[in-house]
């Protein structure tokens, strides 16, 4: 049974995250929230608004401005029985912590044969579309999903934001929690039904083609699906939610049904997360495919300045164009050099 | 009414390294440090002798192909043993790859200590059983783990301090800076013991550091700093004990020397002279304490022979434990990556099983 958590009928994605943090802090005294500016300021996106006042400086606190220090000390705290939830403030600011994340956070369970468990959540506001200047708009998911030992999740709706963050904090494994910052202010209803990790979800049912999206691109994919009806295409949208581990079952069930798929993400395409999705779909659903699986991604460039980002980010039109290239004639499939 | 106030511990290290024993084993008259009790000194001696024998044995095991590599800490016994024996049972140790002698001094089974170097798995011991963090190969990353661990203890109201070991090269890494800064701000009960053995593999201190000493680096973070003679086990033990009991952070630089190369795979003659090594052999930490204990009547021929025999026995047990072929199960590859093994790893494990069938 699904109970309504929020009294408000609608809550922003940032508000849903705030509520998840508050509920987790209230439910478990070992949960800590810390990072840069998360205390009195409530975070630059206000995701931690009011938490320090409510739970005190022992539970919610500002740290020195040092990302490796934040993650490295979180590892030590988790070794000592606490459950740190840390904020990286902006995607590209997490890179100084990369060694702590990949060499230690991801590996300590394995290195110690399960004796050391690190229930750490690293919240990373990621992606563009907010007019941010350089180093504020990276999509860094491929770095983390390539690292065994990490769970990587990203919500596309306020409801998922709440539930995935509660799951992430409960997780015995470290979780990279990617927050689509351009959707922080998108509103939606909340329920308290737990999703469970590793599960993708069909956001919109359709017959002709599967759009595979996550995080900031879920809304864009849904918008595209609506627009596609004018072309007579019935588009299904799958929201991955969990990037690692990957939910083959939900994705492949959809692609087997539709026979066509497009993967959409903001990050650069080359060596990107979409390549993995295409490979998995191709390996598992090859005989059901009527066309090659396409990708619509950001260009293979450093993230552009605000006045050019609209050209870089996948748009409804660009995704519609990809759908159009999926050859609706079932007889001809992806000819090579013809 | 006059208010009493605890004296602030000084941030600045002394100009000369603090010591209790001169290199010939005679006591320093005006040392600000307190000489450890006789029974502690006798135990420090015993553990250093055992530690050195262990180190020699491990080096020999590399020549027999039993260990892939071994980073010797010969010459650094005063740091390894003096600091570990200063720990209270509830305190934690965060060691590096060179600190195997510290581990066996803490009571970790020698075979478990050498598991990493043997290649059977990345770690052999249970950190919680011995209160010893995983040996760390990337430099300085363990400093932050120690700060976090100690801060968590403080938040939980536990009287637990952390001792983190690092080398001189590790002080050049950014994590050391961040760890000292966090420890200073949080006043975390952490002792940073820098074993300055003169070289980061082959790069000497002159190319590593421009500060008057590595201990001076604590000043900028508000962390009390101590410079100590790292070949004087009594002095190392005294400063580490005092630092652990201070309830806050301390940076200790211990001046010492690694007599052997960086590892058995390194050729130290390419970057240092035999005269330099000889000069440090003259400051040997074991000889120094033996001279003092002998002069005090705390060590005689019989006691010496008994400790040597115990060290031989220890080495024999290390040989016996390591003289077996380690054959980890290929299935171990997929264990403990996550709390619950996800489907894609179960599939890969099945594939490997098929290959092996």
TrEMBL record, chain A:
UniProt domain Transketolase-like pyrimidine-binding: residue ranges: 11-186
Keyword Oxidoreductase: yes
Cofactors required: thiamine diphosphate
SMART domains reported in the protein's UniProt record: Transket_pyr (SM00861)
Keyword Protease: no
Keywords recorded for this protein, A-Z: Oxidoreductase, Pyruvate, Thiamine pyrophosphate
GO-annotated molecular function: magnesium ion binding; oxidoreductase activity
Signal peptide bounds: none
InterPro entries the UniProt entry points to: THDP-binding, Transketo_C/PFOR_II, Transketolase-like_Pyr-bd, Transketolase_C
PANTHER family, per the entry: PYRUVATE DEHYDROGENASE E1 COMPONENT BETA SUBUNIT (PTHR43257), PYRUVATE DEHYDROGENASE E1 COMPONENT SUBUNIT BETA (PTHR43257:SF2)
Protein name according to UniProt: Pyruvate dehydrogenase E1 component beta subunit
Organism: Saccharothrix saharensis
Automatic annotation (TrEMBL), chain B:
Cofactor(s) it depends on: thiamine diphosphate
Entry keyword annotation includes Oxidoreductase: yes
Coiled-coil annotated residue ranges, if any: none
Recorded GO MF terms: magnesium ion binding; oxidoreductase activity, acting on the aldehyde or oxo group of donors, disulfide as acceptor
Domain of life, source organism: Bacteria
Alphabetical list of PANTHER family matching this protein: 2-OXOISOVALERATE DEHYDROGENASE SUBUNIT ALPHA, MITOCHONDRIAL
Name of this chain's protein: Pyruvate dehydrogenase E1 component alpha subunit
The species this protein was found in: Saccharothrix saharensis
């Amino acid at each position: 049974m699904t109970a309504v958590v929020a009294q408000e009928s609608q809550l922003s994605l940032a508000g849903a995250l705030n509520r998840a943090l508050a509920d987790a802090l209230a439910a478990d005294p070992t949960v800590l929230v810390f990072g840069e500016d998360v205390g009195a300021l409530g975070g630059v996106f206000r995701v931690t608004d009011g938490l320090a006042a409510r739970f005190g400086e022992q539970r919610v606190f500002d740290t020195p401005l040092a990302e490796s220090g934040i993650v490295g000390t979180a590892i030590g705290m988790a070794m000592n029985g606490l459950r740190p939830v840390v904020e990286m403030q902006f995607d590209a600011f997490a890179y100084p912590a990369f060694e702590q994340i990949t060499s230690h956070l991801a590996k300590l369970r394995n290195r110690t044969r399960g004796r050391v468990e690190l229930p750490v959540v690293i919240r990373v506001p990621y992606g563009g579309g907010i007019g941010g200047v350089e180093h504020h708009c990276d999509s860094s998911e491929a770095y983390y999903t390539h690292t065994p030992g990490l769970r990587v999740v990203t919500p596309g709706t306020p409801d998922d934001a709440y539930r995935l963050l509660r799951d992430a904090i409960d997780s015995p494994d470290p979780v990279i929690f990617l927050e689509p910052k351009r959707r922080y202010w998108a509103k939606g209803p909340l329920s308290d039904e737990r999703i469970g990790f590793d599960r993708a979800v069909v956001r919109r049912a359709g017959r002709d083609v599967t759009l595979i999206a996550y995080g900031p691109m879920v809304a864009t994919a849904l918008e595209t699906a609506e627009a596609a009806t004018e072309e007579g295409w019935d588009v299904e949208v799958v929201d991955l939610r969990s990037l690692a581990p990957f939910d083959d079952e939900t994705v492949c069930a959809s692609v087997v049904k539709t026979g066509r798929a497009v993967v959409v993400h903001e990050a650069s395409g080359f060596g990107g997360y979409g390549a993995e999705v295409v490979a998995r779909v191709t390996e598992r659903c090859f005989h059901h495919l009527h066309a090659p699986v396409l990708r619509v991604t950001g260009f293979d460039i450093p993230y552009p300045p605000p006045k050019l980002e609209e050209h870089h980010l996948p748009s409804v039109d660009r995704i519609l164009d990809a759908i159009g290239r999926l050859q609706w004639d079932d007889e001809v499939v992806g000819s090579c050099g013809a | 009414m006059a208010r009493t106030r605890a004296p602030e511990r000084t941030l600045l290290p002394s100009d000369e390294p603090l010591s209790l024993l001169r290199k010939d084993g005679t006591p320093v008259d005006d040392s600000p440090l307190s000489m450890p009790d006789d029974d502690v000194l006798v135990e420090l001696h015993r553990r250093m002798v055992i530690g050195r024998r262990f180190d020699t044995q491990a080096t020999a095991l590399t020549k027999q192909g039993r260990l892939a590599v071994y980073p010797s800490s010969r010459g650094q016994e005063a740091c390894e043993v003096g600091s570990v024996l200063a720990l209270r049972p509830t305190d934690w140790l965060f060691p590096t790859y060179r600190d195997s002698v510290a581990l066996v001094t803490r009571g970790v089974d020698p075979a478990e200590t050498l598991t990493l170097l043997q290649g059977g798995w990345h770690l052999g011991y249970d950190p919680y059983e011995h209160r010893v963090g995983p040996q760390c190969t990337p430099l300085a990353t363990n400093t932050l783990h120690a700060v976090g661990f100690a801060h968590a203890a403080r938040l939980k109201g536990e009287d637990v301090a952390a001792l983190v070991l690092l080398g001189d090269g590790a002080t050049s890494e950014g994590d050391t800076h961040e760890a000292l800064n966090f420890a200073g701000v949080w006043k975390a009960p952490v002792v940073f013991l820098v074993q300055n053995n003169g070289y980061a593999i082959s790069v000497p201190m002159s190319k590593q550091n421009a500060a008057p000493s590595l201990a001076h680096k604590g000043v900028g973070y508000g962390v009390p700093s101590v410079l100590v003679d790292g070949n004087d086990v009594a002095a190392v033990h005294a400063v580490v004990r005092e630092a652990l009991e201070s309830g806050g952070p301390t940076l200790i630089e211990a001046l010492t020397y690694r007599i052997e190369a960086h590892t058995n795979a390194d050729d130290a003659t390419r970057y240092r002279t035999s005269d330099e090594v000889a000069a440090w052999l003259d400051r040997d930490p074991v000889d120094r304490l033996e001279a003092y204990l002998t002069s005090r009547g705390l060590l005689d021929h019989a006691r010496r022979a008994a400790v040597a025999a115990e060290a031989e026995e220890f080495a024999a047990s290390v040989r016996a434990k390591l003289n077996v072929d380690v054959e980890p199960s290929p299935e171990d590859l997929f264990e403990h990556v996550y709390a619950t093994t996800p489907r894609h790893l179960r599939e890969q494990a099945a594939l490997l099983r098929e290959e092996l069938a």
